[in-house]
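WARN no homologs supplied; continuing
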Amino acid sequence: MPLSGIRVVDLTRILAGPFCSMLLADMGADVVKIEPPGEGDPIRRQGVIVEGLSWYFAQFNRNKKSLALDLHTPEGKAILARLIERADVLVENYRPGVLDRMGLDQARLDALNPDLIVCGINGYGSTGPYADRPAFDFIAQAMSGFMSVNGTDGEPPMRAAMPISDLVAGLYGAFGVACALVARRGNRTRGQRVESSLVNGLISLLSYLSAEYLATGRQPARTGNDHPIAAPYGLYRASDGEVAIAPSTAEVVRRLFRALGIEPLLDRPEFATYEARLAHRDAVNALVGERIREGTVLHWIEHLNAAGVPCGRVADLRAVFSDPQVLAQEMVLEVDHPGHGRVRMTGFPVKLSATPCRARLPAPEVGAHTEEVLRDLGLGDDIPRLRERKII
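OK structure emitted
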């Protein structure tokens, strides 16, 4: 697998950090998740619990090992230091400064392992006036500008349903780690620090809309399901449901009008050009909508796709996870969890032909791999004493 042989110490919890380390684990890295003894990561008790297992936790912690370790004790910190000495990557999502207060500032990390790549995921970045603030996805969506461009003009701003800032920060963190590993392998660096944040990640996603603001100072309008610079475009009501239609160029618009039997209307001045259609968006949408209402969703999906017009149904999750294309792409994964049965979760979005991702391990029970990890560190004889003192 792409990251086989890469050893990762995972100090993360909740979502952004565990998503980052899961992506590394899916690519083959040996990830040891360090959790407090007893209850472990808080998301073990969140989401839907089936037979004692949080499927939310199972989704974001597959392919990892769990080491239960009390990091509030000197011996717990000493064990962590031994892990770091042998690791390639350390991933953490504490607020800036917490790692330093644990005795793991950059100087100590460099002394332990000068080749270590440290990935820090936080809310706002580690510098600047907001660096010490607590962060949460909803706040990041608001403060990044992301929320301000969602929804419909005249209505309140709208958040994305999924915790998108956590997921983007985790994705960028994993991408940064992969880049740092390549740089290290090419002898361009030894270790280095990788940082991603909830707010910075969402700001980067605004680039399509922010380009106009940065060029002109104009705030983008909230356009809902309409496209800000294309018409017709959006959701149209068929006789039995909604159809999403996205003709993004003049040629595709002509294909759409031809497929709808209204191509001659493109000769009218108000519909003839891109600018004219934007200026008369309501009239264009009304014409397209009138024709779409005459057929079913299935009819238009087949007819418009055959005509070269991008379109699709608005699918709920039941439809998504039974869709033949989704199943063909193996985006529904089943993983055996001993004692909990088979857990269904989303599959691997990145497809590698020679070194594909695999579900090697289910999400672990708290401390399931404690003895294995400690023996690998040469601490097998200390396990009874460490258990007695509740350090592990």
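The chain has two domains: 7-205+327-388, 234-319.
OK
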